[in-house]
Amino acid sequence: KTALTGIRYEWQSFNNCGPANLAMALSFWGWQGDQRDTRAFLRPNEDDANVMPEEMLAYVQANTALKAEMRVAGDLATVKRLVAAGFPVILEIGHHPPKDWWMGHYVVVSGYDDAYAALITQDSLIMADLPLPYAELQTRWWRDFNHLYLVLYPPERQAEVYAILGPDADPLANWQRALALAE
User: Fold this and answer.
1) Beta strand extents in 19-126 (DSSP E only)
2) CA 123 to chain centre
3) How far apart are CA 31 and CA 8, in angstroms?
4) What is residue 151's three-state secondary structure?
5) Taking the chain, what is the end-to-end CA distance rounded to the nearest angstrom?
6) pLDDT tens digit string along 32-61?
7) What is the distance between the alpha carbons of residues 16 and 36, in angstroms, rounded to a whole number?
8) What pLDDT band is residue 99 in, cutting at 50, 70 and 90?
């Protein structure tokens, strides 16, 4: 069982899960802003309902001293290794609320508990410390976005992040592996 502390939980405002989850992940590293700050960059007008992970990366690069990596074809073992090493992970997942409809969503993984076979997530739409069962993540929610994840980190810890990512540290190799898995 591993649980990171220091993430400032935020309930998202309407249609604001991307900015809220990015703000939560940044708060772990001492960032003092909130989803209003990230929203101003990520969703500059009210009609912009979607936040792409590439926009989140651009925010980190333009507005913080942190680095960030976005990868696809993620797996539970990699997420757990990142969290165990002290790196919260943002997942882009599908969300299937009642009434038979679907939407894209983000959550921040702040821990895991193998005894309960669940990740511990900060879900800006539902609640803090929401368990996300491994089986549901892998068979339903995460595949909607090709198992995409983001990890934010201080520059001096880049070698550590790359060691955890292994061959996926190379973005091209990561996309090639994703293609092979999809085929």
Assistant:
1) 67-71, 89-95, 103-113, 118-123
2) 10
3) 10
4) strand
5) 34
6) 999 999 999 999 887 777 899 999 999 999
7) 9
8) low
Give pairs for 73-76: CB < 8 Å, separation 24+. Answer: 73/146, 73/147, 73/168, 73/174, 73/177, 73/178, 73/181, 74/142, 74/147, 74/148, 74/149, 75/147, 76/119, 76/134, 76/137, 76/138
Do 93 and 145 form a contact (C-beta atoms < 8 A)? yes
Cβ neighbors of 40 (< 8 A, separation 6 or more) are none
Q: What is the pTM of this model?
A: 0.94
Provide the 3-class DSSP secondary structure of residue 67.
strand
Cα 160 to its chain centre, rounded Å, is 18
Residue 178's CB: how many other CB atoms inside 10 A? 18
Distance CA 180, CA 73 (A): 10
What span, in angstroms and rounded, lies between the C-alpha atoms of 164 and 168?
Answer: 9
φ, ψ of residue 119 to 5 degrees: the values are -80, 155
Both tokens assigned to 85: 């090493």
Query: Taking 70 as the threshold, does the pLDDT of residue 101 lie above it?
Result: no
